[in-house]
Design brief:
Blueprint (H helix, E strand, L loop, with lengths): L48 H9 L5 E5 L6 H12 L4 E7 L7 H15 L5 H7 L5 H18 L2 E7 L7 H13 L4 E7 L8 H5 L3 E4 L1 H4 L3 H12 L4 H11 L3 H14 L5 H8 L6 H11 L6 H10 L7 H8 L6 H13 L4 E7 L2 E6 L1 H11 L4 H17 L3 H10 L3 H17 L3 H10 L2 H5 L2 H13 L3 H14 L5 H17 L3 H6 L1 H4 L8 H17 L3 H17 L11 H15 L2 H18 L4 H17 L3 H8 L3 H7 L2 H17 L3 H18 L2 H17 L3 H24 L16 H16 L3 H17 L3 H17 L3 H18 L3 H4 L5 H11 L4 H12 L5 H5 L4 H5 L4 H5 L2 H10 L5 H8 L3 H15 L4 H10 L2 H6 L12
Parallel strand pairs: 1-4, 1-5, 2-3, 3-4
Antiparallel strand pairs: 6-7
Helix pairs in contact: 1-2, 3-4, 4-5, 5-6, 9-10, 9-11, 10-12, 11-13, 13-17, 14-15, 15-16, 15-18, 18-19, 19-20, 20-21, 21-23, 23-24, 23-25, 24-25, 25-28, 28-29, 28-30, 29-30, 30-31, 30-32, 31-32, 32-33, 32-34, 32-35, 33-35, 35-36, 35-37, 36-37, 37-38, 37-39, 38-39, 39-40, 40-41, 41-42, 44-45, ...
Protein name: LuxR family maltose regulon positive regulatory protein
Keywords: DNA-binding, Transcription, Transcription regulation
InterPro entries: P-loop_NTPase, Sig_transdc_resp-reg_C-effctor, TPR-like_helical_dom_sf, TPR_MalT, Tscrpt_reg_LuxR_C, WalR-like, WH-like_DNA-bd_sf, WHD_MalT
């Protein structure tokens, strides 16, 4: 998700003054809470004690399935079992599904919300990822994040999905399959469905990890039927109860319907009355409807039948809603509530769901609802629309926007539904409910959406939010063509989105070209657009090396916010992100200490505000990790960033993602973990290729050149360098023929080009490594001068140190010393450590020589001491990854804990294959391989690839392979 595309709860004051129905923007309820509560039982609920006891005895199994046609008591039994689990230390996350949930975004939001009701920490990371993409990769990342949260929860957790047959979308079913496949030992999945479960559970069946109950298991036994009928009718002889149960074939709903009919005829069910009932055949939904119509509905009072028919038009209802649906001049809510309670007590197929405030929510049995809907649909179209019109107005007044839109459309008021979405779109946006907004818009007729410029702008924003960049570009093109001349505010919003799209695509020149228009907003531009504009402009100024201007626009925005109400805090358009840019402007100048203070303050405040500021927290953490790495606090940088990296890739612009992954690679490299260091670079390379970001790809290749040269792998380094140089040449050609040839903006300040720098820096490293020192010296001078002109002083210090290394090898002691001193003075002023340590393998030795030749002033002498203290670990520590003692204590138990698939992954890991290549070899997705790697590291007690390979080598895994277990090699050279 781009950083300019969201806002926080703190800006709810932007809401319109008089929303329909008087509902406040802040009271919107995008989720139907009653779907997340285990249905309540009542005194007439049939207790299936034997069935519940059987399920409780098998509670350790992974998966539970209750599958039968409607009316066999699946929901009732599943709810009873869930309630019985609570005293046994189990937590339960419940979700009642309906046809509106057959959308990956909607379903996933409900699933995560149901788990969050148990413990918000379980789904915190998954909720972040869920916001940022519903593509296959995004959904799998979200599922894995949820699984990790469940693992950390420790307690046993049951996720119960009722009415699973409503889910048919292949993306949802694939996500469910992942949940089944990746489920940890403390997760138990329970499904109730009218049809077969569309999941592969053969592996679970083979390991006896499922309990599958079908229609035969859910049929009532003779004893259960007798007990039920006695509870409903009083004294019933066993023979009559048995005949009724046989007649209904143990169908709970059929037996319940018979009891209703008999109770209506007389208080005690005589043998004669039962014999008359036995003449009926009530074994399926069709005969149920006919019998129910004749024996129950026709005998209700007209007011009761009218209420139930109107209520059937809604998936759930309460007394105040039913009162509104009756549309009486004098509402009688007390009478309606009394009627609902009596119908519930009479067991008239009305189920209480949960209690919200002063209201109890109910739903009709699916068979009864279908029967009543047929009656409702026989009404005139005008009468039906009137009921839906009352429903949407009531739901809106209560803050239930989704149901309000649904009923407005049913009422034939598509324009009103669109107006509702328009009016509340900003509130959903500010609450981070972009998926809800998109789902609501998708319900509208396409022509209705096309007729609304406001909705089209929100959809373009939503496309940018979800990184659907090509679709967003097409939407913005169409909007620009259709905007009327007097729509200045809308045109400016489109302009800001256009600039944001260019930034996300890493098209700096395109974004910079829009700067003059961005600096001239119309008076009617709204706060969110202006705040997003401020952050876009800050980014542009930083690309031009105009760091003071980048900071000034943020300081001005903060001053305006202080005088204009609550500031916009949270994400893309928020002040916290703006403060991150202030810190980044200092970091780009090399003022790391100043940047660190700002990042820490932002991170602390963002975490205090919770989910609404999680995007700012992730960006601040990534930028802070860069500072920590520069200060040689590698473990701290890793701890801060590794758990956020999946989210970071989806919330931040490419520049921030680039910085974060370089930190992770550098920290692993400094610790001697070579495979892990290259794995992060390969991941960065994959992002660059998949997203079409040449700079990201180029920086990855340049860093690979540095690392390969450090290992003495000159041929591999040369191959990377040739790819990098070709990429740079293509980019230069494109600039000359496309975006513009100039590296010089109108201000005269040099425009820094990250890809251009990466190619030149890698070329210099290669020239030094291969002994072409004179050419290296010339290129270093030119590169340092260019970086100074661009204001990238943090890059100048290591370039000066490299120049000193070249001078030393050319036997030029005076220039070598001068360049060392300049690098030290600049490095100390900017707070650099790792930049100088990573400049060249011999850099620290050269610094020591200069310090010994002549006394340094006390400040620089202390700085040199810090550099020496930060030197890489000794060879033995590097070789063992800093974990030699742990490795020597290793036992073969770790190998035995690995599954066959995990052993396959380890074997390929030892061949130095990337995650993507391992996935291709084994026919898995990259996310699945990452999940296996996480499990492998945990079982072996290691922290990364290098340690895993070393641990397996110490355990003589290769010897076990030779003795006949599995194929593979642990020799990276194999």
């Amino acid at each position: 998700m781009p950083w300019w595309s969201m806002e926080t709860d703190s800006s709810i004051s932007e809401s319109p003054a008089n929303p329909p129905g008087g509902v406040s923007m802040a009271t919107l309820k995008p989720l139907v809470s009653s779907k997340l509560a285990v249905p309540r039982s009542n005194k007439r609920t049939l207790a299936r004690e034997a069935l519940t006891a059987r399920m409780l005895a098998e509670r350790r199994r992974r998966c539970f399935v209750l599958q039968s046609p409607a009316g066999y008591g699946k929901t009732t039994e599943l709810a009873a079992w869930c309630r019985a689990l609570a005293p046994l230390g189990y937590d339960v996350a419940w979700l009642s599904l309906d046809e509106d949930d057959n959308d990956p975004g909607v379903w996933l939001e409900y699933l995560l919300s149901s788990v969050a009701r148990v413990d918000a920490a379980i789904s915190r990371e998954a909720t972040l990822l869920e916001d940022f993409g519903m593509d296959q990769d995004g959904v799998e990342r979200t599922v894995i994040a949820l699984v990790r949260g469940i693992v950390s929860h420790r307690r046993e957790l049951v996720i119960a999905l009722d009415d699973l047959h409503h889910l048919t979308d292949p993306r949802i079913l694939e996500a469910l399959q992942w949940l089944v496949d990746y489920a940890p030992a403390n997760l138990h999945l329970a499904f109730a469905s009218r049809g077969p479960i569309p999941l592969s559970m053969d592996r679970l069946r083979a390991h006896d990890m499922t309990l599958e109950l079908n229609m035969g298991d859910l049929r009532l036994s003779a004893d259960e039927a007798e007990g039920f009928l006695k509870a409903q009718l009083g004294d019933v002889d066993a023979a009559s109860a048995r005949r009724l149960n046989e007649l209904t074939d143990g169908w709970v709903s059929g037996l319940q319907l018979f009891s209703l009919s008999l109770r209506k005829k007389r208080r005690a069910a005589t043998s004669g009355a039962i014999d008359m009932a036995i003449q009926e055949q009530v074994r399926d939904a069709r005969t149920f409807a006919l019998f129910f119509e004749r024996e129950v509905l026709s005998k209700l009072a007209p007011a009761e039948l009218d209420l139930l028919t109107r209520a059937a038009a809604c998936d759930r209802f309460c007394a105040s809603l039913c009162t509104a649906l009756l549309a009486r001049d004098v509402p009688d809510q007390a009478g309606t509530l009394s009627l609902l309670e009596r119908l519930e007590n009479d067991n008239l197929f009305i189920t209480p769901l949960n209690r919200t405030g002063q209201e109890t929510w109910y739903r009709l049995h699916p068979l009864l609802q279908q029967t009543l809907l047929e009656r409702f649909e026989s009404w005139s179209e005008g009468a039906q629309r009137a009921v839906h019109a009352c429903a949407w107005q009531w739901f809106l007044a209560q803050g239930h926007l989704g149901e309000a839109v649904h009923h407005a459309l049913k009422a034939g008021e598509a324009a009103q539904a669109a107006a509702l979405i328009e009016q509340f779109a900003q509130s959903l946006f500010l609450h981070g409910q972009m998926r809800t907004l998109a789902a609501l818009v998708r319900q509208l007729p396409p022509a209705q959406v096309q007729s609304s410029l406001t909705l089209r702008i929100w959809m373009a924003r939503q496309q940018l939010f979800h990184l659907e960049l090509a679709a967003c570009a097409a939407s913005l093109d169409a909007l620009e063509a259709d905007l009327p001349a007097n729509a200045a505010a809308d045109a400016f919003t489109v302009l800001v989105l256009r600039a944001a799209l260019a930034i996300q695509r890493d098209h700096a020149v395109t974004a910079i070209a829009l700067l003059p228009r961005l600096l001239d907003p119309p008076p009617t531009a709204d706060r969110v657009t202006l705040a997003g504009r401020n952050n876009v402009v800050s980014w542009i100024y930083m690309q031009r090396g105009e760091y003071e201007q980048a900071r000034d626009i943020q300081f001005a925005a903060q001053a305006d916010g202080a005088s204009g109400g609550a500031p916009l805090l949270g994400t893309g358009a928020g002040s916290l992100m703006g403060r991150c840019f202030v810190g980044l402007s200092y970091a780009l100048e090399g003022q790391m200490n100043q940047a660190e203070r700002i990042y820490r303050a932002v991170l602390r405040e963002a975490e205090r505000h919770g989910r609404s500021c999680n995007q700012a927290a992730c960006v601040a953490a990534a930028l802070l990790s860069e500072v920590l790495y520069e200060q040689n606090q590698n473990e701290a940088a890793r701890d801060l960033l590794e758990r956020r990296v999946d989210v970071l890739e989806r919330v931040a612009v490419s520049d921030v993602v680039l910085r974060g992954l370089l930190v992770l690679s550098g920290a692993r490299w400094a610790a001697g973990h070579r495979l892990d260091a290259f794995a992060w670079l390969e991941r960065l390379e994959e992002i660059g290729v998949a997203s079409g970001l040449p700079r990201v790809l180029g920086v990855s290749l340049a860093t690979q050149v540095f690392r390969r040269l450090a290992l003495g792998e000159v041929s591999a380094a040369q191959a990377c360098l040739e790819r990098l140089q070709a990429l740079d040449e293509d980019a230069e050609t494109g600039k000359r023929g496309g975006e513009g040839a100039a590296h010089e903006p109108a201000s005269g300040t040099a425009l820094f080009d990250g890809l251009h720098f990466a190619a030149r820096a890698a070329t210099v490293r290669f020239l030094i490594a291969t002994g072409d020192l004179e050419q290296a010296a010339l290129r270093l001078d030119a590169l340092a001068a260019w970086c100074e002109a661009c204001g990238r002083f943090g890059l100048v210090a290591p370039l000066r140190l490299q120049r000193a290394v070249v001078d030393r090898r050319l036997a030029r002691p005076a220039p070598a010393r001068a360049n060392v001193m300049e690098a030290l003075r600049l490095g100390h002023r900017l707070g650099l450590l790792r930049s100088l340590l990573d400049a060249d393998p011999s850099a620290l030795e050269l610094i020591g020589e200069v310090a010994r030749e002549a006394p340094l002033d006390p400040v620089l002498a202390f700085y040199v001491e810090r550099l020496h203290a930060a030197r890489p670990p000794c060879a033995e520590s590097v070789e063992t990854g800093g974990n030699g003692k742990a490795r020597r204590r290793a036992t073969p138990a770790g190998i035995k804990a690995l599954s066959e698939r995990e052993m396959d992954v380890v074997g390929l890991l030892a061949e130095a294959l990337s995650t993507k290549k391992i996935a291709r070899t084994l026919g898995l997705s990259p996310e699945t391989v990452k999940w296996h790697l996480t499990n492998i590291y945990g079982k072996l007690g290691v922290s990364g690839r290098d340690e895993a390979v070393e641990r397996m080598r110490d355990l003589d895994w290769a010897g076990q392979q030779e003795s006949g277990t599995r194929g593979g090699s642990l020799d990276p050279a194999a």
